[in-house]
TrEMBL record:
Name of the protein: Ferredoxin-nitrite reductase
Region (Disordered): 584-607
SUPFAM superfamilies linked to this entry: Nitrite and sulphite reductase 4Fe-4S domain-like, Nitrite/Sulfite reductase N-terminal domain-like
Pfam family, one: NIR_SIR
Record PROSITE patterns: NIR_SIR
UniProt domain Nitrite/sulphite reductase 4Fe-4S: residue ranges: 152-308, 418-563
Gene Ontology MF annotations: 4 iron, 4 sulfur cluster binding; heme binding; metal ion binding; oxidoreductase activity
Listed PANTHER family: FERREDOXIN--NITRITE REDUCTASE, CHLOROPLASTIC
Organism: Halogranum gelatinilyticum
Family assignment from sequence similarity: Belongs to the nitrite and sulfite reductase 4Fe-4S domain family.
Nitrite/Sulfite reductase ferredoxin-like domain segment(s): 69-105, 111-143, 342-404
Keyword Metal-binding recorded: yes
This protein's UniProt keywords: 4Fe-4S, Heme, Iron, Iron-sulfur, Metal-binding, Oxidoreductase
Length: 607
């Protein structure tokens, strides 16, 4: 067994085939922090200009992504919250940090200046972070047990799962202790700090399957197995899911069952297998899904058993995925997103609040902390649909909680177009994104709510907008999938979206079919309106939208989209990433105030 042996986690004993592997071989893992803090003390311009790429790549390991062109010296900071749990006191500190440090030189017309993003991986993102402020931010976060360690980079990312694990009265097994054990074991673990690429882990114990194991590198999913004459609850293991780029995969069963007590050891063995066998020659092919393509589940299991685990692995147990309903698009799916008021196993209640596209202003985030403390235990849970949950509310406090003004803006009973909206960061900050996303999806949802009636019986409808093929908004698993592109309209370049249909998870997961390409963004709401009208006209009985898509020929689906200009007006459609900030009044790259010093003042150019 090699899973726990000391290994050359920097150089891996080989010539470095890519720039990233070379940079990681020189400095990576926990040691990056010392350099990061030195740069912070000396200021932004202490980073040699010809070393920006390598240091920005390393900074990711400590949760920092450099923002897009025109925003030099500003960073996005990601804070890991394992399984989406914010313990009492942590939400307030996040809000305080956002208020003090996450305010930039421009105002977002919808969200203002200073806000918190809840992400599709149950994490937190802050923007406009200055390098010079990072030591103080780290100190504040770490004082309440929060960290940015390994929130990004080629290592174990934030572990996701059912956001109400340990609270859910319908869960098969409480997966929260296992998720926390994995986080404790592998965050900062030098043997697993330098993997070929990112490592995304999901652990699910609930009935609905809201941990979304199918789209993770490593998925532990609820199962039972008779061991020594006793029925034992635990997890079956699946490997190799993911959505990024144009290579989506569903995780594959490797015929392994683990008890909660074995989960950490076997997960570490699988991580070590990936560390030693993943492709470091080509980062595009470095995710474990490509290794699974090459080996297949049988070989993968054999290598795991023979080389990385020193006890006999159990074969898979009885799969409990047959009850999965989360984001299924089928009639049994219902509202399995944990938004709303639900009784916990202990008789208290949790209240899930809809946060449109996952963005919440700092004042509202402070109110969230107050409300959670006043009516519940102070704990907040983050979901993979960018929403938040207040837990541990006694029944007698529910009415008073529902009367709070905060719930007028973040409803526990939202309209389906609001409830179903997910969006990534977009060109506001992201260097990869092609189009603006969050403000646009807010406008889409509001226009659709006012102008489109959903067909009878349709109460759950998901629209996911991702700014590029990196799929951070998980578009392939939505009823309507939107993906950023560019096109020309009336001779001018405009932002555009590809449209996909019929994605979903649940018991029978399936990726969306991309049926329409490069639709100008101002014609997309009309396309959705016409599509839903065509669905209502052609649906059979009470079939869901996903069922309709599944039985309809792809060419026919494309004909039903029918893009159309409407009363919807898109103020960002001509941006096409030609400005330093999509909403800036002066819309040229030359107007950028970046780079800036620690006080936010522009730095003079060398010439």
């Amino acid at each position: 067994m090699r899973a726990t042996l000391g290994v050359d986690t920097k150089g891996m004993g080989r010539q470095m085939p890519t720039d990233v592997e070379k940079w990681k071989s020189e400095v990576y893992g926990n040691e990056i922090r010392e350099h990061l803090l030195e740069f912070a003390e000396e200021g932004w311009d202490s980073i040699p200009e010809d070393e920006h790429d390598e240091w920005f790549e390393r900074f990711k390991w400590w949760g920092l992504y450099h923002q897009r062109n025109g925003q030099e010296s500003y960073f996005m900071m990601r804070i890991g919250t394992p399984n989406g749990v914010l313990t009492p006191g942590q939400t307030e500190v996040v809000a305080d940090v956002a208020d003090e440090y996450a305010r930039g030189p421009a105002e977002n017309p919808v969200f203002g200046n200073g806000y918190v993003d809840w992400t599709t991986r149950q994490s937190i993102q802050l923007h406009w972070i200055k390098l010079e402020d990072i030591p103080e931010i780290f100190e504040k976060l770490e004082s309440v047990g929060l960290s940015t360690q390994q929130a990004c980079g080629d290592s174990w990312r934030n572990i996701v799962g059912c956001p109400v694990a340990g609270k859910d009265k319908h869960e098969h097994v409480d997966a929260l202790p296992v998720a926390m054990e994995l986080n404790e074991e592998f965050k900062g673990n030098e043997d697993h700090s330098n993997l070929p690429r990112k490592w995304k882990v999901s652990i699910t114990g609930c009935r609905e399957g809201c941990g979304q194991g199918d789209i993770n590198d490593l998925a532990l999913e609820p199962a039972t197995k008779e061991i020594d004459g006793e029925e034992t609850k635990g997890f079956n293991i699946r490997i190799g899911g993911g959505l990024s780029r144009n290579e989506p995969r569903l995780a594959r069963d490797i015929d392994v069952f683990v008890t909660p007590e074995q989960a950490s050891e076997v997960s570490g063995a699988i991580s070590a297998l990936f560390r030693e066998n993943g492709d470091r020659d080509n980062r595009y092919n470095a995710r474990i899904k490509f290794l699974m393509d090459e080996w297949g589940p049988e070989k993968f299991r054999n290598v795991l058993q023979e080389e990385f685990v020193d006890f006999e692995l159990e074969t898979a147990g009885e799969d409990l995925r047959s009850e999965y309903s989360y984001n299924s698009g089928y009639e049994n799916g219902g509202h399995s997103d944990h938004v709303g008021i639900h009784e916990q196993a202990d008789g208290n209640y949790y209240v899930g609040l809809d946060v449109l596209v996952g963005r919440m202003g700092v004042d509202d985030t402070k109110e969230l902390a107050r409300v959670a403390d006043e009516y519940g235990s102070g704990e907040i849970r983050i979901t993979q649909r960018q929403n938040v949950i207040i837990t541990d509310v006694p029944e007698e406090k529910l009415d008073a909680l529902k009367s709070e003004e905060l719930l007028d803006h973040y409803s526990p009973d939202p309209h389906p177009f609001m409830r179903g909206s997910v969006a990534c960061t977009g060109t506001e900050f992201c260097s990869l994104s092609i189009v603006e996303t969050k403000n646009r999806q807010v406008r889409y949802a509001r226009w659709l709510k006012e102008n489109v009636e959903l067909p009878e019986g349709v109460e759950d409808f998901h629209i996911h907008l991702s700014g590029c093929t990196a799929s951070c908004a998980q578009p392939q698993i939505a009823d309507i999938s939107l993906r950023g592109m560019k096109t020309r309209k009336d001779g001018e370049p405009v932002e555009a979206l590809d449209i996909g249909l019929g994605g979903g998870l649940g018991e029978n997961p399936n990726f969306a079919d991309w049926v329409a390409q490069r639709i100008p963004v101002d014609e997309v709401p009309g396309a959705i309106k016409n599509l839903l009208a065509n669905f209502e006209e052609r649906r059979e009985g009470g079939e869901t939208f996903r069922e309709f898509v599944e039985r309809t020929d792809e060419d026919d689906l494309a004909d039903l989209v029918e893009p159309e200009e409407t009363s919807y007006d898109d103020p960002m459609m001509h941006n096409t990433k030609m400005t330093w900030y999509p909403y800036a009044e002066d819309d040229s790259m030359d107007a950028s105030p970046a780079p800036t010093d620690g006080e936010g003042q522009p730095l003079p150019s060398d010439d």
